[in-house]
Amino acid sequence: MTPNGTADAGDKVRDAAETARDSTVLHVLARIGFAASGLVQVFLGALAIQLGINHFADADQSGAMEQLGQLPGGFVLLWVSMIGLVSLAVWLLIEAALMRAGTPAKLWARRLQNVGKAIAYAALALTALAVVQGHPSDASSSTRTLSGQILALPGGAVLLVLVGLAVIGIGVFLFIKGVRRRFLRDIDIPDLPGARPALTVLGIAGYVAKGFVLGVAGTLFVVAAITVRPDEASGLYGAFESLSTLPLGVALLIATGAGLIASGVYNILRAWVARF
User: Fold this and answer.
1) Which are the contacts of 26, defined by CB distance < 8 A and separation ≥ 6?
2) CB of 216 within 8 A of CB of 236?
3) Which of 29, 31, 58, 33 is nearest to 43 (CA)?
4) Contact 65, 136 (CB under 8 A)
5) Structural domain that includes position 268
6) Going residue by residue through the chain (276 aa), what tens digit of pLDDT does each one get?
7) What is the tally of structural domains in the chain?
C-alpha cells in the first residue's frame, strides 16, 4: 500500500471512530453505564457500613452486584448494567485513541487515565455477567489468587509492589480530584436551584472516599509483596477489613461507606449531566 493509501485508510478508521464516539446510541448506553456504576457504589457503601456495624458482609464488587440482582427486576437490571458498562468502556477507549490536544506527557497521561477507567468498567461488567450466569466470583479470593500468581513469577514481588503503588497513585489522584473539585469539569451542571452545591458535595465526598479506599487497598498489595503473603492483598474487602481493625475503625467504615454512597448518587446523577 502506498503512503497515500495508508493515510487514507488511517483517515477512514479515525472517521469511523469519531462517528462511533459521537453516536447518540453510544452516549445513551454510556450514561446507563454511569448509572449502573453508581448503583454498585451505593450497594458497596451500604455493605461497608454493614461490615462496620455487624462485622459481617461481602463488601466488594461481587457482593454489591449480587445485592443489585436481588432488586425487583434484578436480572434485567444486571443485563442492562452490563451493556451500559461495556459501552462506557468502549467510549472511553475510543476517546483515548482520538485524543490529540495537549503536550505529549499530558496527552499520554489522559489516555492512560481513560484506559484505566475502561478496564475498571469492563471488569465490573464481567462481574455483572458472572452474577447473571449464577456463578459470581469472590472478588477478594480472586485478588488473592492473582497476587499469588504474580508473586510466583520471577521478580514477582517487585511487580506486585508496582501494582500496589499504581493503585495508591490512582487513589491519590481521585482524592485530589475530589478535594480540588476537578470532577466539575466532567459534567454540565443544570440550571436548577441547588444543583451546583448538591453535585459538589456529593462529588467531593465520593471522590475522597474512593481515593481513601484505593489507597488502603494499594497499601495492602505492597504489604503482600514485602511479606510474600498474597492473602494480605484482598482488594476492597481487605481494605474494609483493615479499616475495621483500626482505632475508631467502625466510625471510619461508616464514614467511608457513606462517602461511597455519595459517590454512587453522584454517578447516577452524572448519567444525566455527564459531558461527552
Assistant:
1) 20, 87, 90, 91
2) no
3) 58
4) yes
5) 3-273
6) 555 555 566 667 777 778 877 888 889 999 999 999 999 999 999 988 988 888 776 777 788 888 888 888 888 889 999 999 999 999 999 988 888 777 788 888 888 888 988 988 998 898 888 888 776 666 666 677 777 888 888 888 889 889 889 989 999 999 999 999 999 999 999 888 899 999 999 999 999 999 999 998 889 888 888 887 777 666 777 788 888 888 888 898 999 999 999 999 999 999 999 987
7) 1
